[in-house]
Amino acid sequence: MIDLEKAKQTFKEYVQNYNLDNPHIAEKVTHTYRTVNVAETIAKELNLEEEDRKLASIIALLHDIGRFEQLTNYHTYSDIESIDHGDLGVKILFEDKLIEKFIEDRKYDRIIYLAIKNHNKYKIQEGLEKQEQLHCKIVRDADKTDIFEVLTQDMQKGKGILYDYTKIGKQKISEEILNAYRENKQVESKYVKNEIDGYINMISFIYDYNFSIGLDIVKRNQYIDNMIRVVNIHKEQKKQFDELLEIANTYIEKRVSLKQKDTII
């Protein structure tokens, strides 16, 4: 059995080891709780059994556990500049045996391990069993959905923690980024050349959703419109931004309006 309340209390105690006055640390804590809420929504909409719903929640609770050590040791959340936080997370949980404080039953370890390890990769590794793949998909969708919320809250500050939205609109979006959008593909990190590419890269998360449930949340909260419109776009780049916004919204509208039946296979 999964004792979700115990796991949440353990997480609360764990993060006390870090500087919660640091806005980056504090944001990761709130991001975690919101990601749990989204994962619960997805699991409910998929009509999963209670145990799978709890499993989806605990995976979401632990998906960014590596972020706290990453920031403490490397002073950055950039995996490229430091360490892959998904890999670090499973090391902390399973090599250092932190997982034993969160859940007593070891029968879920492989699923939790695979879901956390795969949550931040470009794509899910092949060859997984049905339940393993399901939970990889749920946490990836839940994480992406709340990343849009994180960006929305950040951009309300104008010069936020993540980006200076008054400046990035002067940068030119790389052609590789634009081509990926035109093909409805998530952008690969290797094509990111500057801050605006990185920002647009996160918007391209919409192309990697496994279930339309998360995209419906994105649509209802107008995340994409807000993310594009908040940027102080230089007139030379306006055409690029207009094209991206149209492509992204057309894709979301199609996925959601078709009421595509989500499959757990």
Could you please describe the fold and organization of this structure?
By secondary structure, the chain is mainly α. The chain has two domains: about 5-145, Hypothetical protein af1432 (Orthogonal Bundle); about 165-255, no CATH class. The chain has helices at about 5-15, 25-45, 50-60, 65-75, 85-95, 100, 110-120, 130-155, 175-180, 195-205, 210-220, 225-230, 240-255. Helix 3 (about 50-60) crosses helix 8 and helix 7 (about 110-120) packs across helix 8 (about 130-155). The longest helix is centred in the middle third of the chain and has 26 residues, at about 130-155.
Highlighted features:
0% strand; globular; 265 residues; mainly alpha; Hypothetical protein af1432; 13 helices; 2 domains
How does the major sheet shape up?
none
Q: Tell me the series of helices and strands, N- to C-terminal.
A: HHHHHHHHHHHHH
Q: Give the strand tally.
A: 0
CATH homologous superfamily assignment of the largest domain = Hypothetical protein af1432
In the residues, how many domains can be counted?
2
Low-pLDDT runs of 5+ residues are none
User: Beta-strand level of the residues, as a percent range?
Assistant: under 5%
The SS-based structural class is mainly alpha
- CATH domain fold name of the largest domain: Hypothetical protein af1432
Structure annotation, total helices: 13
Average of pLDDT? 91
CATH class of the largest domain: Mainly Alpha
**What is the gyration radius calculated from CA atoms?**
18 Å
Assign a percent range to the helix content. 55-70%
Shape: globular
Q: How far apart are the first and last residues' alpha carbons, in Å?
A: 24 Å
| CATH A-level architecture of the largest domain | Orthogonal Bundle
